[in-house]
Amino acid sequence: MKNNIIIFYFFLFNNFLLANDLIRGGGLNYCGYLINTVNQHSQYSGMWKQWITGFISGYNTDNSKAYLLHLEGDAIFYAVKERCEKKPEDKVYEATLWVIKNK
User: Fold this and answer.
1) Whether pLDDT at 18 is above 50
2) Which residue of 53, 74, 93, 99 has the fewest C-beta atoms within 10 A of its own C-beta?
3) Contact, 98 vs 84, CB < 8 A?
């Protein structure tokens, strides 16, 4: 029984690490952190805009798609911020993927 628990935690931990290998930078933060940093220091919105724009560019390149090209960078940021306000427990990359698929 003890061995089964150890094996279960090994696979659970390994899957968590593999997911984080695909995402880098600010996107690993929780949405609540994005909201707090922007509310406390508005100049940080530029940092988040850069990460979100880069993530979408990489997503488009990897998928040979053209998601959100009809939106300006500010509109994309505010869409992600709005999603983060609704779901502060999500990661920023999850909110960004939601915007990609729903805007």
Assistant:
1) no
2) 74
3) no
